[in-house]
């Protein structure tokens, strides 16, 4: 039966040759009247990095992989093998190789079976364009007619391009580039003889030679191609023999899946190819960092990382979650673009604005004492007060009360205007910004926070982050704060002790933040060129008890910056206009922030004077209001404790009787109460 089918095909071929050879003057009209199928085909959307490397690709609508490919993307060895094996007179015939056809007919008649084929590469392209059959003579004539028409309208290179785009490679794989990525796990730019031979052999029988289902058949077909190529002088016989020992691929390689969230964002805007500013190697490294760091934490937690070049504003890596396919941590949610409370990470902007407007200097003294702004009484994270200290130290300790004092002087509306001026879109719960704005009372994304910090890193100039390489023009930078103010804030933040094993101080300016209820842990920082931001939390906003930016996010920040550059790029020198003097040398209005009369008198609010309390082995609870810590506690003139900083404390008195308790603060103010213990 197979022999008979072969002879029928040969008979069909003879008839076809007669049509082509004896059509006379009408041949040209017949060819010109050929209806050419659609030559433009849908291809897989692709997202590539700044160097043209593939980050991610998508199947076309019907689920097939079909990827654009250009000659410069293909090893020339493949083309030499393809033409030598399939159609050695490709560049000289007009679509139908009459010499090969005659030889095939003669051999078939002599042997009673098909010995060699006569289908040219152009005829194969014709069959692929029409998805036609080859077993009927009508189909063969149609392919020959279309092949002749294609040769008149297309160049040889264009015909080869159609073949490399449409050739079947088994399953849902079409075209050379998709086949190389899926069956070889690599782009076809550099191929070994064995790899090129496999890609030549598979389209002849794509299903029966699929490497994932029939690896031995694929290997045998590949080796036959190599032997033929060695006999034809395309490759050395030694290469054919040595490569023939290599195993054939036995499965599919996964398509690259780097930067899936950002790739989704790009493809959602438009189909086709997208070139991003990302660096594939760095992106891969930071995705690995996120997975490794989060593997030991609660699986419901997610992480996001953004790393950019603050000189150009280009995003070099963007990790939306540690596991794109994760369900417990909602890995499909891109947390680089999710609005969250930034916690204390807004404080550097407040200080920079205060420096810019002459309200303070890094060496200005500011009070960290209890204070009320109407009904709002901010508290420090640890519940303690440090009394009077420098603005520099207040920022390094991330104290809440000093930054709220500065926010009140600036005006929350001006802080909101600065955020908007930096190109951010802050989201407020209410309509009017309040003093809690500087403590994270606003919704911002990780991308926006990196953009804000990039402005501080780049001398106070704000510009949008760019993640598309095709962006025609860079936006004109906006002056957010002066160069001197931006440098002063960076210099202060560089003085914070890094996490253990992260290197000495002064190399990276960085700040952490923790939102209310421990919902979000943040860390942002920069060196002389690169800026990075890290967010960790639950996408659904559920509190994460014990989560702090310093403990969770900061180590990742330093490691991320370490992966973009082996050594941090040095931070810049101060601009010449920077005022670098001691507190004593400052103008009088900058030596202390706010009037001295702002200090609230020290009071003992509990126990009230004359109160009677039961004796307790733990001591007498004291509650204070006002004053400047640290506090000293005395009982009937005898010192009980010193260096106390909290407004709530225990006086170690356990005996019965009348006792006068006195408290003295750092400014010498005192408060007292007389009680009876029973």
From TrEMBL:
Keywords: Carboxypeptidase, Glycosyltransferase, Hydrolase, Multifunctional enzyme, Protease, Transferase. SUPFAM superfamilies: beta-lactamase/transpeptidase-like (SSF56601), Lysozyme-like (SSF53955). Its EC number is 2.4.99.28. One of its GO terms (molecular function) is penicillin binding. Residues 60-229 form the Glycosyl transferase family domain. It holds the Pfam family Transpeptidase. It catalyses: [GlcNAc-(1->4)-Mur2Ac(oyl-L-Ala-gamma-D-Glu-L-Lys-D-Ala-D-Ala)](n)-di-trans,octa-cis-undecaprenyl diphosphate + beta-D-GlcNAc-(1->4)-Mur2Ac(oyl-L-Ala-gamma-D-Glu-L-Lys-D-Ala-D-Ala)-di-trans,octa-cis-undecaprenyl diphosphate = [GlcNAc-(1->4)-Mur2Ac(oyl-L-Ala-gamma-D-Glu-L-Lys-D-Ala-D-Ala)](n+1)-di-trans,octa-cis-undecaprenyl diphosphate + di-trans,octa-cis-undecaprenyl diphosphate + H(+). Residues 303-516 form the Penicillin-binding protein transpeptidase domain. One of its GO terms (biological process) is proteolysis. Pathway: Cell wall biogenesis; peptidoglycan biosynthesis. GO terms for cellular component: outer membrane-bounded periplasmic space. Residues 598-672 form the Penicillin-binding C-terminal domain. In the N-terminal section; belongs to the glycosyltransferase 51 family. This is peptidoglycan glycosyltransferase. It comes from Sagittula stellata (strain ATCC 700073 / DSM 11524 / E-37). The lineage of its organism: Bacteria, Pseudomonadati, Pseudomonadota, Alphaproteobacteria, Rhodobacterales.
């Amino acid at each position: 039966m197979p022999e008979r089918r072969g002879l029928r095909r040969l008979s069909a071929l003879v008839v076809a040759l007669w049509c082509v050879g004896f059509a006379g003057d009408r041949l040209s009209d017949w060819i010109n009247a050929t209806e050419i199928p659609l030559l433009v085909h849908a291809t897989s959307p692709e997202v590539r990095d700044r160097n043209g490397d593939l980050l991610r690709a998508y199947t076309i609508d019907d689920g097939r992989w079909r990827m654009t490919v250009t000659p410069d993307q293909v090893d020339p060895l493949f083309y030499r093998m393809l033409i030598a094996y399939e159609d050695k007179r490709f560049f000289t015939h007009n679509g139908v190789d009459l010499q090969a056809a005659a030889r095939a007919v003669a051999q078939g008649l002599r042997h009673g079976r098909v010995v060699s084929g006569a289908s040219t590469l152009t005829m194969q392209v014709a069959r692929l364009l029409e998805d036609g059959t080859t077993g009927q003579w009508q189909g063969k004539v149609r392919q020959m007619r279309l092949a002749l028409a294609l040769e008149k309208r297309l160049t040889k290179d264009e015909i080869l391009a159609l073949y490399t785009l449409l050739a079947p490679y088994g399953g849902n794989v079409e075209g050379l580039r998709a086949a190389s990525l899926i069956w070889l796990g690599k782009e076809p730019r550099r191929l070994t003889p064995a790899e090129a031979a496999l890609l030549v052999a598979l389209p002849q029988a794509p299903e029966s030679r699929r490497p994932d289902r029939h690896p031995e058949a694929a290997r045998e077909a590949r080796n036959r191609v190599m032997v033929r190529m060695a006999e034809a002088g395309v490759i050395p016989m030694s290469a054919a023999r040595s490569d023939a020992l290599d195993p054939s691929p036995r499965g599919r390689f996964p398509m690259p899946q780097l930067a899936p969230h950002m790739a989704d964002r790009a493809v959602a805007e438009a189909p086709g190819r997208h070139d991003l500013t990302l660096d594939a190697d760095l992106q891969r490294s930071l995705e690995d960092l996120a997975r490794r760091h989060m593997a030991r934490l609660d699986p419901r937690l997610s992480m996001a990382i953004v790393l950019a070049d603050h000189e150009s504003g280009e995003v070099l890596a963007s990790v939306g979650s540690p596991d794109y396919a994760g369900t417990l941590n909602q890995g499909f949610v891109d947390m680089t673009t999710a609005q969250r409370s930034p916690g204390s990470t807004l404080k550097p902007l407040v200080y920079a604005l205060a420096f810019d407007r002459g309200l303070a200097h890094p060496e200005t003294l500011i009070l960290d004492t209890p204070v009320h702004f109407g009904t709002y009484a901010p508290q420090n994270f640890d519940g303690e007060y440090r009394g009077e200290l420098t603005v520099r130290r207040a920022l390094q300790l991330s104290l809440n009360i000093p930054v709220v004092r500065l926010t009140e002087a600036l005006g929350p509306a001006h802080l909101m205007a600065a955020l908007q001026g930096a190109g951010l879109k802050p989201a407020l719960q209410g309509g009017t910004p309040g003093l809690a704005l500087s403590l994270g009372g606003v919704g911002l994304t990780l991308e926006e926070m990196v953009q804000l910090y990039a402005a501080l890193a780049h001398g106070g100039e704000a510009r949008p982050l760019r993640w598309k390489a095709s962006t025609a023009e860079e936006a004109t930078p906006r002056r957010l704060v002066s160069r001197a103010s931006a440098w002063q804030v960076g210099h202060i933040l560089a003085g914070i002790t890094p996490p253990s094993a992260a290197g000495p101080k002064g190399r990276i300016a960085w700040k952490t933040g923790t939102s209310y209820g421990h919902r979000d842990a943040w860390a942002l920082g920069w060196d002389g060129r690169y800026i990075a931001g890290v967010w960790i939390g639950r996408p659904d906003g559920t509190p994460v008890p014990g989560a702090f930016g310093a403990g969770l996010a900061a180590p990742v920040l330093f490691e991320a910056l370490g992966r973009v550059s082996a050594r941090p790029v040095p931070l810049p020198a101060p601009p010449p206009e920077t005022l670098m003097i001691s507190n004593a040398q400052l103008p009088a209005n900058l030596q202390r922030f706010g009037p001295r009369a702002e200090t609230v008198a020290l009071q003992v609010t509990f126990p009230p004077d004359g109160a009677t309390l039961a004796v307790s082995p733990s001591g007498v609870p004291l509650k204070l209001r006002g004053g400047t810590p640290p506090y000293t506690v005395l009982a009937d003139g005898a010192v009980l404790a010193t260096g106390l900083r909290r407004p709530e404390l225990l006086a170690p008195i356990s005996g019965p009787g009348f006792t006068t308790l006195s408290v003295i603060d750092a400014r010498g103010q005192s408060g007292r109460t007389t009680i009876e213990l029973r």
